Amino acid sequence: MGKMTVAPALTDILPTDVADYLCVTIVFLKSQLRLLYKAHALSPGDLIAGLRELDVYIDKQVLLLPRRRGLHADLANALAERLHPSPRGSKGPIIRYEEDLIRLRRAISEHSQRDTAEAAAVRDISNWSRRILEQGPWDETNDPISLAGPPALPMPVELSDLQTLTPFFEHLKQDLTVWDPLDGGHQAAEPYYKIHLLEYQKGVLYADGRLDLCKKVVGPYNIEPLMDALRTNNLVRHFLLGNNVIGAAGARAIGKFILERPESIETWYLAGNCVDSCSLRCLVDAWVTSGAVTNIWLKRNPLGSAAVDDLFRLITTAPNLRTIDLDQTELGDAGVARLFSVLAEHIPGHPKLPLRHVYLNACGVGPKSLVAISTYLSSTNCSIESLYLSLNPLGSHIVSLLPGLQTNSSLQRLTLASTGQTDEYVALLLAAVTNHPSLRSLDLGQSYQTQDLSQRYNWLTGSLVDDLCNFISSSPKLQYLSLSYTLIPTGVISLPVARSPLRLIRLPSIIADSELSGLCAIHRTISRHTQMLYFSAKSIWPVIPDLQQRRVLSQIESPARGRMAANVQNGYQLTYNEFLAAEKRFLVSPRDVRFIDSVYRNRDAGMARRGEGRLEKYWGDERVLEEVKRVGADVWGRREKSRGTTS
């Protein structure tokens, strides 16, 4: 649509121009309102979709029109009276005029925001497309990946000095609540969840019992003062110390605290702390005495295969341990295989273990591990609900896991993102888990960490569509399926169309299943599923931005979205957007992840997403790591010397 001239800048209007201005502006305003009404008639639930169907934008010169409380209120009133004639002295015209402007301005803003978001999505898909296509389907023979697992390093940090931590430690020591700040403490609410919190320069305490020092880098020197402060504290139940590089000195200090107060802490989040197998033994010696501990997170600690015996002891002895996070801990294929072999031997003659959730992402899981895990899953005593295997070089070896998946009846969540999968083996996997009695979440997508951790993308194409549709329709418990960025085409097809007198495209009211392929066929299947809540798939193949094709895609996707929204409403009594913000995460993760939510980690991730900062991944100077190791060696040296003297 050609743009109409409203008028010169309002400040340039001369008295003799006012009449002309009013005439031109009324014509313009009515034309824009007509577009709005037509768009609403075409798409009552999505005004922007209606505008796109008309192939028009609301003219941005609407933003220049005078407002009721602006500098040119007299012009606003004059326009209002012409647009909405009413008895003299009535406020009705100006009120309706303002409502018109608000609707038009909102349409301009929302259209612009959607264009921006879609342009960003196109760029994102283009980036993923380049990376995935450059890799191709994983060639396991000529492109081998180490089965030792990626190195377990914390994020690059600098050690904190005690002075910056002391105010928070003092608050903990005095056993004060989040409503009793000392100097330097600021009360706030956790974003979205609105849990009351108290934040110091370094350290956050939440009303639900979380202590959050993630990325505040207590280090090996200040861990003792922290644990001393907690000896008199009765509020903290969840200990979040991610990326604090405490090393062996920290493990010893924490172990000593647990032995003294075994029932005080439920959740231990110790990701990225330079804890090795020797340090872990000190922690396990303490954890097995605790009936309180339920969740232990050890990702990015270099445990290595030497830690297997202690991990087995922890899993089989800690009476209430339900989550163990071993992501990126250098266990390797041999270590994971040994751990699950001894677990499989243990459980037949013992009561069910409390363990429910096992994280093994980026551990080097390979052929040996998959055989052992499969055996464990096959046991009637297996109680595993969540198994995370993403970012491992599984490839064709995934078939070794299938016997366990076919026999198992407890598994609810399975992630296999970026494991080098192809159509042939995923088809076998889908057949194995079709109609599984409990599986509700399956991730076959891609991970953002794939290249950083030297793993391989999944390569799933249109050849897999029939298998996926059969899996979905034959799995009534399924609620979550992610294909992420995939080579499956959208499946948009050309259909015979008619045109209305307004030359708008009219598609057939019913598009037969036989006419659909690709993602369109999957969306059609989802539109009939009574439990599905979330489906994610973006084709890396570009869709020609043709109006007819956009409408076909929308006509197919809309019922699927509507079905999932209805399922959410039935199950959660939430709108779909509310569900995405609050409950979707618990389809993929157990609810215990709420206990490790950190405002520090979330702030850093949010800033990185907005381009306001970046997450440092690589150590340039490793002096901090060397210092942590040195302090740890001194601690163990003194410990061994003390033992020798005692004996």
UniProtKB/TrEMBL annotation:
A GO MF label: GTPase activator activity
Organism of origin: Sphaceloma murrayae
UniProt xrefs under InterPro entries: LRR_dom_sf, RanGap
SMART domains (alphabetical): LRR_RI
Protein name in UniProt: Ran GTPase-activating protein 1
